[in-house]
Design goal:
The protein is α/β, with parallel strands linked by helices. The chain folds into two domains: 63 residues; 165 residues, Glycoside hydrolase, family 3, N-terminal domain (TIM Barrel, Alpha-Beta Barrel). The strands form four sheets. The protein has a four-stranded parallel β-sheet, covered by helices on one side. α2 links the parallel β2 and β3. It is globular and about 50 Å long.
């Protein structure tokens, strides 16, 4: 069944008349939940049940639940560490880090699926260049091979728990300092540099079955005049045609 292309959000803890009107629109195919939509597990279950009664199980319900600073649901859920912690373990014991990444993915998926949530926007596939104010400890590592390995294992854990993963932020958000949610963020690097470093992580995981990709809000000014999320070059030429995604 074809679903609508828009993913929207909700105002509060329960559905308002306006919420119901908006999510019932055929152009809306899903919604993302935030901290403002969560009080406790009982309220969350009531909310997702209400959404399903209106739109059924073809409608997508998502959340940012990657761990660390970005975990929207707290009470009643396992506290997920920032992915940087896995990178620190990797530096000492890669096998242990990979195992922990798998377990974390499984925990995220298992707990969210109890509440009929389809997926979390995770993992972060950005490289830690030690510059970004918004990525920082959300990134696994500064080493490309470490990121590929840890992310692959986390994705396997998600799959084991019954959930698909979403790699972000294509083609790479880790290089710039600014928070692209708050200001225009410009990455001036060449396509060759971005492709050989940041994009190589996405390319590798797509080959191994990554199910979905979230583009960044960043403007890569040496490559295209539009931010990645609004760029046919990044979404069509690179992601679709070059990566066959």
């Amino acid at each position: 069944m074809m679903i609508g292309p828009l993913m929207i959000d909700l105002e509060g803890l329960s559905l308002t008349h306006e919420d119901i009107k908006r999510i019932s629109h055929p152009m809306v195919g899903g919604l993302i939940l935030f901290t403002r939509n969560f009080k406790d597990t009982e309220q969350l279950k009531n909310l997702t049940n209400a959404i399903r009664k209106i739109r059924g199980h073809d409608f997508l319900i998502a959340v940012d639940h990657e761990g660390g600073r970005v975990q929207r649901f707290r009470e009643g859920f396992t506290t997920i560490p920032a992915m940087r912690k896995l990178g620190e373990v990797w530096d000492k014991d890669p096998n242990k880090a990979n195992h922990l990444a798998f377990l974390i993915g499984q925990i995220i998926a298992t707990e969210l699926r109890v509440f009929d949530i389809d997926f979390s926007f995770t993992p972060v596939l950005d490289i830690d260049y030690s510059e970004s104010t918004v990525i920082r400890d959300r990134a696994f590592h500064g080493n490309i091979e470490a990121i590929k390995s840890l992310a692959s294992n986390l994705l396997e854990g998600l799959k084991k728990g019954g959930m698909h993963g979403v790699g972000k932020h294509f083609p790479g958000h880790g290089y710039i300092k600014a928070d692209s949610h708050l200001s225009i963020s410009e990455d001036t690097r060449s396509l060759d540099e971005i492709a050989s470093k940041d994009m190589s992580i996405f390319a590798s995981l797509i080959k191994h079955g990554l199910d979905a990709v979230m583009p960044s809000h960043v403007l890569y000014s040496a490559v295209d005049e539009n931010p990645a999320g609004f760029s046919s070059f990044w979404l069509k030429d690179q992601l679709r045609e070059n990566f066959h995604f």
